[in-house]
């Protein structure tokens, strides 16, 4: 059970790294319609699609949900494992 918890923690770490990469990309390339209009940029659907970063935002949302679920599972597994270790006579 403890090995499963460790594996899940590794998955959570991997998802956190992906979040960092997604947010870094959003930071570098995201521009809202209001920002573009304020800069007097001619708006086209292609430009708005390019700067909206929809894929990165969706990945961050999915990752947050997955990380939350995995962390709850890890806590349950580690609690059960700790209970087994505490119940063992020395």
So how many helices?
Answer: 4
**Biggest sheet details:** none
In total, the number of strands is 0
Class inferred from helices and paired strands? mainly alpha
Distance between the termini: 21 Å
Strand/helix succession: HHHH
Account of the 3D structure:
The chain has 90 residues and is mainly alpha-helical. The protein contains four helices and no strands. The longest helix is centred in the last third of the chain and has 34 residues.
Task: Please specify the SSE layout and strand pairing.
Elements: H1 2-29, H2 33-38, H3 45-52, H4 54-87
For the structure shown, list the relevant keywords.
mainly alpha; rod-shaped; 90 residues
Short précis:
With 90 residues, the chain is mainly α.
């Amino acid at each position: 059970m403890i090995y499963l918890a460790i594996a899940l923690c590794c998955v959570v770490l991997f998802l956190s790294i992906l979040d960092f990469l997604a947010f870094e990309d959003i930071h570098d390339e995201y521009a809202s319609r209001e920002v573009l209009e304020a800069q007097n940029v001619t708006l086209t659907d292609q430009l708005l699609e390019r700067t909206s970063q929809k894929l990165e935002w969706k990945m961050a949302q999915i990752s947050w949900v997955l990380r939350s679920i995995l962390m709850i599972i890890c806590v349950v597994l580690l609690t059960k494992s700790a209970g087994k270790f505490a119940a063992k006579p020395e």
